[in-house]
Amino acid sequence: MPNILGRQHNVESEYWLRQYKRNGIPLDCERAYFYCLNKLIVYYKELIGEIIKDNDGVIEFPMQTSLIENYLSGYQIQYFGFYGKAKDLSGYWESDEEDNSIVRIFYNTNATFERQRFTIIHELFHFCQSLDIKIQDYFDGLIVNSTLPKDVVVNLIEKATDKATAMYLMPNKYFEKKYYEVKDVQTLSDYFQVSAPSIIYRIKECGLPILQ
Asked: Using CA atoms, how far apart are residues 212 and 126, in angstroms rounded to an integer?
């Protein structure tokens, strides 16, 4: 898996600023937060590249879980839906207590189909994180050795995993190619089987002209 080891980024100790937040991030943490987030995005781009390469570079859309499952050879991935309030919990994963090779992914069936797909991939990436000692050490270092509050580090982990999920479901070069072919949000949404807001957000991330 990719290596993102590097020096930790410290945050100024101006705790009085932490009562002021933008997008849930205290103002004095923003610089360090986005510095770390950009490092994690590079990490996930490399990881997704490895996953696709492991499948001989052959992918079809909409993206399925099979590519990640093939990458995680030796593990048996099981999927279970549960019914709950969509706003409370999207999903989670756990390993079997007796057999660590069995991994269960749980997702909220009360969410939209697109959200369920997003959640399943999101949780698979969380499991990938758990297997990578370097990434675990990186997160532990942020909590222990930086002045980022723990809740900000948790936010960072979730944000990075969301971005990884979007990059997997809509890989850059394939997304850009399809974008220029159709130039229509709904057609892109149907093709990649993600929500229209996800398409719009991905267009912005890729620096493409916004579609009307």
From this structure: 34
Q: How far is the CA of 7 from the CAs of 42, 144, 160, 204, in angstroms?
A: 16, 13, 18, 29
Specify the amino acid at residue 81: G
Specify whether the CB–CB gap between 141 and 8 falls below 8 A: yes
**In this structure, are strands 76-82 and 102-108 parallel, antiparallel, or unpaired?**
parallel
User: 134 is in which domain, residue-wise?
Assistant: 21-169
Residue 143 lies in a domain: yes
Where do we find the tokens 């937040």?
21
Cβ contact 90:115 at 8 Å: yes
* Domains contained in the chain, number: 1
Task: Kindly report the pTM of this predicted structure.
Answer: 0.89
Reference 155, options 4, 63, 50, 26; nearest CA is 26
CATH no. for residue 54? Answer: 1.10.10.2910
Question: Cβ contacts of residue 126 below 8 Å, gap of 6+?
Answer: 93, 161
| Mutual angle of helices 133-145 and 150-169, in 10-degree steps | 150
Residue 97: other Cβ atoms inside 10 A: 7
pLDDT band at 165 (very low <50, low <70, confident <90, very high): very high
CA 205 to chain centre: 14
Percent of the chain whose predicted confidence (pLDDT) is above 90: 76
